[in-house]
Amino acid sequence: MPLTDEQLSTEVTDLIVEASSGVVTGEQVVDESANLLEKGFSSLSFLQLIDALETRYGVYIDLEADTRFLGRVSTIVKFLREQNVG
Amino acid sequence: MTGLLFPAITERMAAHPDSVIGNLADRTTTTQVLEVSGSKRRRLEQSLFRERSRVAIIRRNSPSYVSDLLAVLGAGHVPFLMDPSLGPGELARLFADCGVDAVLHDDTERFPANRRTIDFLGSWLSVITDPASAAPELHPDTELCRLTSGSTRTPGCVEFSGSAVLAAAEGWRAASGFGPADRVLCFAGLYNGLGFNAALIPGLLAGASLYLPAGLPAASNIRRHMAEIDPTVLVAFPAAYDGLAASDRSTLDRHSLRLALSSAARLSARTSTVLTAHGTRIADYYGIAETGPLTFNPDPRPGGGQGYPLPGVSLRFEGDEPDSGRLLARSRSMGTRYLNYPGMLEERITESGHYRTNDQGSLTADGELRLGERLDDSLSIGGKKVSMSEVEELLTSHPDVTACAVAVVAPPAGGHPFLGAVLVGPRVPDVVEIRRYCLTRAAPFKVPERVVVVPEIPRNGAGKVQRAAVAKLLLASLEQPKGRAHAADR
Fold first, then answer.
1. Tell me: the pLDDT tens digits for B266-321?
2. What's the confidence (pLDDT) of residue B133?
3. What's the whole-number average pLDDT of chain B?
4. CA-to-CA distance for B168 and B335, rounded, in angstroms?
5. Where along chain A do its domains lie?
6. Contact: B449, A41; criterion CB under 8 Å
7. What torsion do the CA atoms of B450, B453, B458, B464 make, to the nearest 10 degrees?
8. Residue B217 near residue B243 (C-beta atoms within 8 A)
9. DSSP calls for B90-135
10. pLDDT, tens digit, 9 for 90 and up, residues B352-389
11. Which of A26, B174, B381, B394 is 20 to 30 Å from A11 at the Cα level?
């Protein structure tokens, strides 16, 4: 059963909260008026999120390219859809 | 006048014309890098007319970093290697305090309009059109400047002579055995001591191939580079090794690594043990910006110390015990002075020529250094140092923050330690506004990830901040991640 956008967003939100060790809350994550860096994501949190996304969804994130899509749930979900996830 | 560094480096590079200086997308040879640096040097000569112009290099790792550096040195100018994560406010202050004339960079969005920016063959050259009028003079022997953090209130600019830089690199090359057959994969920024003194300059002098990725050292990214490059030397901060040890390790058994280098923060014994089981032994060495690398152990073991003094290094201890206490270090690679903090480095040099560090340490019976606690209020965030007072000054510069206290907190359910702050003020804004304010002024690693508003800062009877109580307040504010909650339930 393919995941809906809402289900995929929920999964990604959980991964983000976990990558930040709970520093960024789920409530903060879904408010997209700011990006994750502005909400409290550190470079170590981004490292963990990248590994979590690649492991969970089997995707390849090119870190030598533009990675600004990692700043918001909606753009991460868009990236995952483009990689045929869900 | 090109000093000592430029001829020493370029002659050795020319002797190894086919060594690679590249990344996954771009495997240029030493010969090509030398040709590009020559073209860049001619452009610099057409753009900068002052002798010994001060040129900041602020960019991520890439082959262009090397040709930029050589172009500046070859034109007789002085490169200032700066952390690209520094905030606009920090850079503006450094440019003014150090009299920076131009910036070589890879990010046109970050550098404001009072600069004339031209294409620089893979980089951008921004010439500062309103340079500081009363910049301090450079020491006559200075050929290169690098920044230190944590030793001075704001980033200190350390001046180095060419002979100091070469001494650091030659000492490291001899101890680590860098040679033309090595393929060095460096995830540490080249502006940083780990990247500069333990990879870039010794690698160039040894004729090794250098691979310089710009991307974050996520475990998957390291594995990808290891699979494609098959490096013999890996250079990265402890957090990168932590990620590697925690990830899928099945791909780690097939490699040619003979050396993995780490520094700047304590390496976890667990990480070291896990990676050793997969044939990757991590040499955790000790060095600081002001002195260069000080120790090395070619035969590291999990849970071991930071290695043995490098040739030419003298370690002493201040305190009651002969082999433990505050570390005093003397090397042939010492910085000369802080350009923007006159007299402060000289004040820390003892009569014997040793630099008084802010680290405690001791020597084991066989002479290996074991680092102890820091003696100042500096924090280590992902391998970068910052003083608590610098972070607290940054926060209290916000008009709505009247008092604050910071702490580094380790979540009890696992995950990485984070920098947090408790804030006092009548109208303290939310975390996003606080971070936006701070991020325009300082590097992200200096900006607390979590902030909590409190009625007053926890202090003891003597008025001293109770850091344990600050940490407790920050921990209580965390959201329990679902994955970890489930793991704990099991």
1. 788 889 999 999 989 999 999 999 999 999 999 998 988 999 999 999 999 998 88
2. 73
3. 91
4. 11
5. 5-82
6. yes
7. 70
8. yes
9. HHHHHHHHHT--EEEES-TTSS-TTEEEEE-SSSEEEEESS--TTP
10. 999 999 999 999 999 999 999 888 888 888 778 888 99
11. B381
* Contact check, Cβ <8 Å, A21/B213: no
Give DSSP secondary structure letters for B345-389. Answer: HHHTB-TTS-EEEEEEEEE-TTS-EEEEEESSSEEEETTEEEEHH
A34 contacts on B by Cβ (under 8 Å):
432, 436
- pTM of the complete model: 0.92
Q: Which residues contact A27 (CB under 8 A, 6 or more apart)?
A: none
Question: Which sign does the torsion angle of CA B351, B353, B357, B360 carry?
Answer: negative
For chain A, the first-to-last Cα distance in angstroms comes to 8
| Total H helices, total E strands in chain B | 15, 28
CATH of domain A5-82: 1.10.1200.10
What pLDDT does B112 receive?
57
Contact between B436 and A34 using a beta-carbon 8 Å cutoff:
yes
First to last CA, chain B: 68
- Which pLDDT tens digit goes with each residue over A26-40? 999 999 999 999 999
pLDDT of residue B16: 98
Size of interface A-B (CB pairs under 8 A): 122
Nearest CA to CA, how far is A51 from chain B (Å)?
6
Question: Is A59 an interface residue toward B (CB < 8 Å)?
Answer: no
d(CA B75, CA B70): 8
pLDDT tens-place values along chain A, 86 residues long: 788 999 999 999 999 999 998 999 999 999 999 999 999 999 999 999 999 999 999 999 999 888 999 999 999 999 999 999 97
Task: Give the type of residue at B165.
Answer: V
**B144 has which bridge partners?**
B160
pLDDT in tens, B232-259: 999 999 989 998 998 877 777 778 999 9
Q: Which domains, ranges and CATH numbers included, belong to chain B?
A: 5-363 (3.40.50.12780), 378-489 (3.30.300.30)
Confidence class of residue B157 from pLDDT cuts 50, 70 and 90? Answer: very high
Which bin fits A84, alpha (ψ -120 to 50), beta or left (φ > 0)? left
Compute the distance between CA of residue B301 and CA of residue B459 in angstroms, rounded to an integer.
Answer: 41
Q: Provide φ and ψ at B158, rounded to 5°.
A: -90, 125
